[in-house]
Every structure is written in C-alpha cells, then in structure tokens.
Amino acid sequence: MPKLHVLLTKEEAANYKTDAEIVVVVFDVLLATTTIATVLHHGATEVIPVMDESEALLIANSLQESTTILTGESRGRTIEGFIDPLPTLLEDIVAQKTIVLSTTNGTVAIRNVSNAKRIYAGSLVNVDAVADRIRADHLNQDLLFVCAGSMGRFATEDFYGAGCLIDRIIGSGASWKLSDSATTARLFFHGNETDGEKVLKASATGEMMMQLDLEKDVQFASKQGVIPIVPQYENGKMIVKGDR
Q: Side-chain half-sphere of 216: how many Cα atoms within 13 Å?
C-alpha cells in the first residue's frame, strides 16, 4: 500500500530525504500556493518561484520587462519595488505574463523539494482539482504533503489544507497508509470542515493579514475548490499542463 506523510514546515522538507519517485504537494494557503493557483487560472503563462529577493531580481533582469511581473514579500511585508503578492490584486493584471514570485515560506518550500518526481501547488481554492489529478495519475505512488509553515513554525492553515486534500482523496475510496501527521491533519479538517474561514482568520498569519486589512484575501483563500487548475513544477517553473 502506498504511503502518505505530512511535513509541518519547509525546514523539515529541506532536511527530508525526498525519494525521486515521490509525489509532493506543497501548501502555503496564506498565501503563496493560493496566489500561484489564482494567477495561472487568470492567464499567467508561468510562475517562477524563487528563494529570495536577490534571486527574484536576477531572474527578472534576464526576462522581458513588458511581459514580467515581479511580486513578493519578506516576513509578511511587501518587498520594496515588488508588487504585493495577493491573489485578489494580481488576478486582473497577470494574463500572458511571467510571474516571478518570492515569498518567505511557500516558494522556498517548493524549491526545497525540487528533486521530487512531481510537485504540485496545493491550496483550498484548487483542492478538488489536485485531488482529481492524484486519483487519476498517482493512485499507487507515495505522497508527501509539505506544509510551508511560517518561518520555521507550524501554520494552522497549511495543516488544514493538507487535511482537506487527504479527506478528498481518501474519501474517494483510494487507499494510502497514512502517517500519524497525515491522520491528524485529516481529523483536524473533519473537526472544522465547514469553518475554513474561521480557521484561517484564527491562524497567526491570518491574524497578521487581518491587521493589515487583507481580510478579502483571507476569505478568498478559505474557499474550497473554486479554481479548477493544478499548478505543476517543471524546469524551475509552475505551469498548467493541458487545458486550463
């Protein structure tokens, strides 16, 4: 029986010996993976997740300025000269653009597992699409769900997102042997299944975003299954393969 394990921070992922055959789903519900799914859904050509501001600037300088959007935050604050990486802000300006995205946790988490066989960006907004992809393509493969966390700390919203996806794929009749962390994530989601917005607002990152008047983005990030695409990491970029 294939296995399903959940890591709680990007730092755990950096130290985890990722099997080259494993399928990874990365969660940064507030907000990187939600933003990635949103901008690709709204027509962005690709998203390049980077480790930090320096790498973002280096990559952006090698691209055509008119078709590139540089967006990012560091420790919750927008990087000077970058666009704020908010899904509700970016969705109307990203069509046919390359997005260079730098975040404190989510983009780093993606890069920390870049040697895995397949990497997807998971969030609540695209949870059904990711579940469908896993059921269609990865039924007999080990899965690793990586919660980006928040600067080395556990993040409630990512754990909730991981639990939501576990519930979707297990509820379909598919069978994985769940680790203790995977079982707990699913139980946590079950206990709060209809309270996603409340869970996100009560998280440390959610509280910070509320204080910054970003309630609209927290509310959006809590919506389950509203985006029907699966961002997939290939050759250093998040893209959508096939029809959007």
A: 5
Q: What are the helix (H) ranges across the chain?
A: 10-15, 32-41, 53-61, 87-90, 106-112, 127-137, 156-170, 180-191, 196-202, 204-211, 215-221
- pLDDT tens, the chain, 244 aa long: 899 999 999 999 999 987 778 999 999 999 999 999 999 999 999 999 999 999 999 999 999 999 999 999 999 999 999 999 999 999 999 999 999 999 999 999 999 999 998 999 999 999 999 999 999 999 989 999 999 999 999 999 999 999 999 999 996 666 899 999 999 999 999 999 999 999 999 999 999 999 999 999 999 999 999 999 999 999 999 999 875 5
CA 184 to CA 159: how far, in whole Å? Answer: 9
What is the per-residue burial (b if ≥16 Cβ within 10 Å, else e) of 49-61?
bbeebebbbebbe
Tell me the three-class secondary structure of 143-191, residue by residue.
EEEEECCECCECCHHHHHHHHHHHHHHHCCCCCCEECHHHHHHHHHHHH
C-alpha to C-alpha distance for 220 and 224, rounded to whole angstroms? 9
How many C-beta atoms lie closer than 10 Å to residue 71's C-beta?
24
